[in-house]
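Aim 2 progress. For PQ loop repeat-domain-containing protein, the working sequence is reproduced below.
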Amino acid sequence: MSNMALSHNVTVNQALSGIFGSISLTAWICLLIPQLLTNYRAKSAEGLSMAFLAVWLFGDIANLSGALATGLAPTATALAAYFCFSDIVLITQCLYYNTLNARRARQRAQSTATNESEEEPLLRRRRTSSTGLPGSHRRNSVRHEDLGFDPIACIVTGEDETPGSNLWLNNALAIAAVHIVGAAGWFVSYRVGAWDGPDTPDEPATESPIAVLGMALGYLSALCYLCARIPQIIKNYREKSCEGLALLFFLLSLTGNLTYGLSVFSYSQEPTYIVKAVPWLLGSLGTMVEDFVIFYQFRIYAPNRGLKNNGAA
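Predicted structure tokens for this construct:
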């Protein structure tokens, strides 16, 4: 199969790598939108673990450095660079909302001390609810004040705002659209000759110091990726809630990781290349297991599911 070639000197393996890489790139470009909108609508980022984001950013920096040193597929290197940019954007928004809400919480605590005694139980209940997930009360208030249902916002933010809507179906349609757009993007670039080039990639020797350093950075990034989601999983478990998290954010991450790994693997099946790609394959495919844990938490901690179970009992 590797000897087969398409026009423009593109082999089948390179075409598959390009298609998977284009789908992955589309997923990662769209990755921020659901969570950024969810944070914006809630005016809070308390649903996200800052430790998760910090370790993720550190892993992406190591990933980019290692990809440059070892000469991975161009799509893999481009994605690594975009990862770093997207992390900084999301972390900046989270820090902004966390700082803003912390200031408001202090002001609220000071004003509470001067209120009349009969108002204290109501304020305490509201403050307790905010402790579990600051901004959740505000988000619920915004929902009730909406003048109508926005299906685009429902799909993008991963929030189920109507009793009859199917959240998982809406998100599945969004993921399907990512695959279609990503594949179409590669075919357009292929038709315009963007993939003209040599049949085999120019790779550095695995014995060179730069290649050894790249491998070390690759394994470091894989370790960070495997550990990054643990704080988020623990946070969800302690609070028994995934409120404030966009389901589509993690679905896009799963899609991006899967197609990213397929892109690296499809680029070349030569043993030397696969050995060099092991840390990136571990970092992308290994985190999918933790993504499924988070999906399970979304399911068991869903507020609507709890109400249905109580009603059935």
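Residues 112 and 168 are 41 Å apart (CA to CA). This observation will guide construct design in the next reporting period.
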